[in-house]
Amino acid sequence: MEHTAQLIAKDLLKIKAVFFRPEEPFTWASGIKSPVYCDNRLTLTAPAVRSDVENALADMIRREYPDCQVLMGTSTAGIAHAAITAHILGLPMGYVRSGSKDHGRQNQIEGRLEPGQKVVVVEDLISTGGSVIEVVNVLRDAGAEVLGIVSIFTYGMKKGLERLAAAQVRNVSLTNFDAIAQVAAQEAYIKPEDIDRLLAFRDNPSDESWMGGNK
């Protein structure tokens, strides 16, 4: 697992899917100011990295969720990863919309899902965990047995970990915030002294004192 975390971290950094701006933080939709932004959609346009990611997701599902019967992607970022990984594993795949359609069959779950089927949710990244837990709840309401989540990257934030625990759902990620920070420092994407600032953000995003770390 540690080798995979380092490999995927290097891959994401190599294709510039991870952006560092500790001096000029990104603002998330939630209002949180972050020194890091991770855009895993860029893996889809980098074939070698895409291969690493999808094969690693398939290996993780085989190892962590051997009873999986169906993969369900989150909309929209998890859809392509769920489709490619399902192809590798020879499993059915679908995805969950953020809301029901207002036309046709008014589906929120796309693809065939039978009550009692064992599902793994495929997500691209997890921060505070709210959106992926909504997907888990939709699947549970439809009668699925959600074995857990696989994701490419997790920030490992306390709020996200607490939400996942409260929802009684397990997540396993290919790489994480700590691995990204360490590899970024080793390969000179950031200064070694920036690691403490990044981890201070991860541990308590609401405390913005990390922003003045090098001033």
Structure report:
By secondary structure, this protein is of the alpha/beta class. The protein has helices at residues 2-14, 47-64, 79-89, 130-141, 158-166, 177-186, 194-203; strands at 18-20, 26-27, 33-34, 36-38, 70-74, 93-96, 109-110, 118-126, 145-154, 171-176. Helix 1 runs antiparallel to helix 2 and helix 1 (2-14) packs across helix 6. The N and C termini lie far apart (36 Å). The mean pLDDT is 92.
Provide the descriptors you would attach to this structure in a database record.
single chain; 215 residues; alpha/beta; 6-stranded mixed beta sheet; two-stranded antiparallel ribbon; 7 helices; 10 strands; globular
Count up the helices.
7
Element string (H = helix, E = strand): HEEEEHEHEEEHEHEHH
> What structural class do you assign from the helix and strand content?
alpha/beta
List segments where confidence is low: pLDDT < 50 over at least 5 consecutive residues. Answer: none
Largest sheet: 6 strands, mixed
The radius of gyration over CA amounts to 18 Å
Strand order of the largest sheet: 7-6-5-8-9-10
Shape descriptor: globular
- How far apart are the termini? 36 Å
Q: How many strands appear in the DSSP assignment?
A: 10
Mean pLDDT: 92
Helix content: 25-40%
Proportion of beta-strand residues: 15-25%
